[in-house]
Design a protein that fits this description.
The chain is an alpha/beta fold. It has 6 helices and 14 strands.
């Protein structure tokens, strides 16, 4: 699998020729460099929650790409009101099968509302089980004991965790999370976009290494193999 990091918490993963784009936030994202929305590729749009730094370009990208949106029922209903019809609602529960593999929505400890303050359903993380490998995209979340359930459902090859603190886990909590999910290869997101979520990236990598883990911090626009 290939992961392309665009900045903040926006990234895509290529699985068997399918492109999954997570939480599209390009316009106004200070980390994004030279991205042309008309050239963004997506077969699926995976939405963790409704905050503007995760849905800022959702409607535009959905319309440009024709991608299948996967999100909470409340976000799917909101998309419908915006003219986006190709969407599949999910919530906590059993896995849902798509042509690239299965997706299970799991708990995330956060909040979720649209830019106008209206309710956007439960914040979610997602566990992906695919023929190419398994991974967990936590979304915005605090450390939660519910993460200990994830190894019951999948042996993870890697996980994408927020590490910026203040609104989500910081690096120390993300190390505990990696223990809970039994995964030592972590891609860090949701950090250094603004001063309020700034971290010492070198120290975070060193702390992960000291715990026997690998923290990958791709640069905006960089693609890595996983």
């Amino acid at each position: 699998m290939k992961l392309t990091f665009y900045g903040h918490a926006t990234f895509s993963i290529e699985i068997n020729g399918k492109n999954l784009l997570f939480d599209p936030f390009f316009t106004g994202n200070p980390m994004v460099k030279n991205v042309d929305l008309d050239k963004i590729k997506a077969d699926f749009l995976i939405i963790t929650h409704g905050h503007g730094d995760h849905t800022g370009d959702l409607v535009d990208v959905a319309n440009k790409t024709g991608a299948q949106c996967v999100a909470s029922a409340e976000i799917v209903n909101w998309l419908g009101k915006k003219g986006v019809k190709k969407a599949h609602p999910v919530n906590h529960g059993g896995p849902v099968a798509f042509d690239f593999g299965k997706v299970r929505a799991v708990n995330a400890i956060h909040s979720s509302s649209f830019s106008d303050g209206t309710y956007a359903g439960n914040p979610l993380g997602f566990v992906f089980t695919t023929p190419a490998g398994n991974f967990y995209a936590a979304g915005d979340t605090a450390l939660t004991m519910d993460m200990q359930l994830i190894p019951l459902w999948a042996k993870l090859d890697f996980a994408i965790l927020p590490i910026g603190g203040n609104y989500t886990m910081d690096p120390a909590d993300a190390i505990h999370a990696s223990d809970f999910i039994k995964c030592n290869k972590i891609v860090g997101v949701h950090y250094n976009t603004w001063p309020i979520i700034a971290i010492d990236a070198d120290r975070a990598k060193a702390d992960f290494a000291a715990a026997g883990k690998e923290l990958l911090l791709p640069k905006p626009g960089e693609t890595i193999e996983l």
